[in-house]
Design brief:
13% of the residues lie in helices and 42% in strands. By secondary structure, the chain is mostly beta strands. The strands form 5 sheets. Strands 17-16-20-21-14-23-22 form a 7-stranded mixed β-sheet, with no helix packed on it. Strands 4-12-11-6-7-8 form a 6-stranded mixed β-sheet, with no helix packed on it. The protein has a 4-stranded antiparallel β-sheet with strand order 3-5-10-9, with no helix packed on it. The protein is elongated.
């Protein structure tokens, strides 16, 4: 009688368990009672179905011409397909590993040992900036949007493109790099297309670089001489170079105006005299 009650209770327990959980084994235990494997999904302890790992699927800032990668990490994908859609024109770019656009710059990359689905864009241009959606083929589909910003760093040399410097004064050139997603790892300075040697016997040549959202590099050449004239170029590693033409003057320059030891071309002398004459005639 007692054994009958025990087996009856076990049978009821198995029935209740089957109705609330998934039997993944359909096997029998040593005592003849079906073994039930409890899964986290059935107990509601983990998220059902695919979901996006947002911290690993973020907005991206890329440089013009440098390959950009948008990463989409999807957990519990199963046999579902991941697609990439461009919102600007609602264009399907890729599905799985297949490309569905005539623009062959777009490539889908997936390593079977990871949960990352990458949209790679070769030679991106500023027009490629915008919203891209990583979409999973569930019913209904679910998607995660990311913003791609393609920027072109701007390099400028202050007071360019031509500078006039007095002999024995200090050449002070300031190169500014803006709109770069990260500070340039290096900035090269050249003089007449030859890299400047800061340890040369000439001495008095130094560079000071301050990196940040706006990176500045200061080239200082003390006690300027005639051989220091020429074209100076600032070449950041991740931006376009910019040049300035420097003239080291020995004596007065009638068509220039002194400004803090540096001379900048102003008005030609005849034009200046003409301005004075017009002013006097108006008195």
């Amino acid at each position: 009688m007692g054994m009958a009650l025990l087996f009856g209770a076990l049978g009821a327990l198995a029935f209740i368990t089957r109705t609330g959980c998934t039997d993944n084994t359909n096997g029998l235990g040593q005592d003849g009672v079906p073994e039930i494997e409890y899964t986290d999904i059935d107990l509601g302890l983990t998220q059902r179905g695919p979901y996006f790992d947002v911290p690993y699927s973020k907005n991206v800032t890329a440089l013009v011409g440098k390959t950009a990668q948008l990463n989409c990490r999807v957990h519990n994908l199963g046999n579902r397909t991941v697609s990439w859609i461009r919102h600007r024109d609602i264009h399907l770019l890729t599905s799985g590993r297949m490309t569905y656009t005539s623009d062959q710059r777009f490539i889908s990359v997936h390593n079977p040992h990871t949960e990352d689905w990458i949209l790679k864009i070769r030679f991106p241009q500023r027009r490629d900036s915008g919203i891209y959606e990583c979409q999973v083929g569930t019913t209904p589909p679910i998607g995660h949007r990311m913003y791609l910003s393609v920027v072109e760093p701007l390099t400028t040399i202050l007071n360019g493109p031509e500078l006039f410097i007095n002999t024995e004064s200090t050449i002070n050139l300031t190169c500014v790099v803006q709109h770069s997603p990260e500070p340039p790892p290096a900035i090269r300075w050249t003089h007449n297309d030859e890299e400047i040697n800061y340890d040369s016997p000439r001495g008095g040549v130094s560079v000071i670089t301050e990196k940040g959202e706006m990176t500045t590099s200061h080239l200082l050449v003390q006690k300027a001489r005639g051989t220091d004239s020429g074209r100076y170029t600032c070449a950041p590693a991740n931006a376009n170079p910019r040049s300035v033409l420097v003239h080291v003057l020995s004596g007065e320059h009638p068509a220039a105006m002194q400004h803090g030891g540096q001379l900048r071309l102003q008005y030609p002398l005849p034009a200046a005299l003409l301005s004075v004459i017009v002013a006097l005639m108006g008195c």
